[in-house]
UniProtKB/TrEMBL annotation:
SUPFAM superfamilies given in the database record: Metallo-dependent phosphatases
Protein name: Alkaline phosphatase
Organism: Lentzea aerocolonigenes (Lechevalieria aerocolonigenes)
CDD domains membership: MPP_PhoD
Domain called Phospholipase D N-terminal: residue spans: 34-132
Amino acid sequence: MPTFTRRTLLLAGVAGVTAFSVAASARPADPFTLGVASGDPTPDGVVLWTRLAREPLADDGLGGMSARPTEVLWQVAHDDRFARIVQQGSATARPEQGHSVHVELAGLEPGREYFYRFSALGYLSRTGRTRTAPAPGALQVPLTMAFASCAQFEHGYFTAYRRMAEDQPDLVLHLGDYTYEYEAGIHKSPSGIARHVEGPTTVTLAGYRRRQAQYKADPDLQEAHAAAPWAVVWDDHDIANNWAGLQPDTPQANFAKRRAAAFQAYYENMPIRRSPRLYRRIRWGSLATFHMLDTRQYRTDQACGDGLQLCPERLAPDRTMLGDEQEAWLFDGFRGSQARWDVLGQQVFFSQYDYIPGHVDKFLLDAWDGYVADRDRVVARFADVRNPVVLTGDVHAAWGAEVKQRWDDPSSKTLATELVTTSISAGGDGSEEYEDTGAWLRENPHVKYFNNRRGYTLTRFTPGELRSDFRGLDYVTRPGSPIHTKASFAVEDRVPGLHRL
């Protein structure tokens, strides 16, 4: 690995800036327009990410970069001034990988903060903050974790990401719909269109790369990525609305090719390890294990369509959300878990939810209500772990629910807790509640909380308690909204269920 000093890097950056200024070109020269990120921490390492793009919105999806590979230098230090460098090296940004870089670090100390940066083509990237997971067996170190989903660029500004960074979490989970696939102007929120995406609906590799680049160039999103390591999983809009396995929501030619292009662009733009599968575990000592699930790629196609339906087919025992291999992997993880808290990081509403008050039952078939047998199998295995918790995105509102042994009996045993984060921006400004919220909650007494503002959920794990703060913005259709804690709940060790604080 080459060696270089902070002075060398800084001089290279100054030289690059000077050259750009002298040239007075309209084309940006800085290749670090998409920021930096880290993810998937382990006790001795983390993934460092960047992607070079001089022109993030270039039509070919390659960010205005040349067809040649580019050497990228990286550094990791104990301090943000890089006076105490602990590792450094180089990686190659290749055009066939969208000029992205994934550095899978090892050999770091467990449970501590690090800072990192990149250098290429005479420029120095911004500095990112990351952290390794605690050592195996470590229990007493608390964990502050934020989780989020559903960032629709046109529906609003990404202020929630900036507020999340200001909360200084140790870890961020993103549970899907990091990007949306629609062309400009066709997917409107009740608040209208706040800003426009570039390009047509994403169906090609170039299109997905370009859409990812427009999102990654957002300064609020860059703040959140630079603040902490992330663990990410996709949902439908990262590829196409309500896809299931190789089945798109609406018939289309070559969906397998489109899905493969989206998968590649997702890897290129996320701080994740090279792996044949997305589902994986993030272990935080003995305090928490995060089982990050893929509820799209292996599921059976939705029954009776994917909307609100009366549908006996949803009860069929062979319907699966996870697929056989992922389900076996999850249950093996439950059986071998030594964690105080076992957490499912997954995409769609887990608890039963009847959307029609009264004697007629209608369920959302794209969610776990369309895969009842698989949900029953997962709920039965919650008995194998000490404190099961389900984290959810997708539905563009904040919810808190108790997972019941029998959904239609409010007095039945509570087996787990579900926390549903609202969207970053999808749905527009939102409101505190819907007009018929009270009727919905009476129809579903295991649901204890609902709020329709945009934002994220901030959690704090300790050995004795999980605290959850539902954080909401006043507006997203213009930038700069303050953030408020709309409600706080606690889950006590060995006492599943929500207690409002």
